[in-house]
Amino acid sequence: MIPILKRINILAQKQREDGLTQTEKEEQQQLRQEYLQIIRGQVLHTFSGLTILDPLGNDVTPQKLKIAQQNQMFKTNDEA
């Protein structure tokens, strides 16, 4: 589970019950942005490992995804 999700949920519950102070609203907004970045990163990571095959077993992975996978492979090799 994503660590900041617990705090996001606490702030959401408090917002429904009592309302939030301006500081808490700012914290909530920042945490939501961080959460979205984490989720987007997970989705991109998942898609970067996909290969799409048609019913005949031919690789029909979109060219844009293949290029992104190649770029990711080069980044990984450069970091090693």
From TrEMBL:
GO terms for cellular component: cytoplasm. Keywords: Cytoplasm. InterPro entries: DUF896. Its main location: cytoplasm. It is found in: Cytoplasm. The keyword Hydrolase does not apply. Belongs to the UPF0291 family. HAMAP family: UPF0291 (MF_01103). This is UPF0291 protein C7R93_10970. The lineage of its organism: Bacteria, Bacillati, Bacillota, Bacilli, Bacillales.
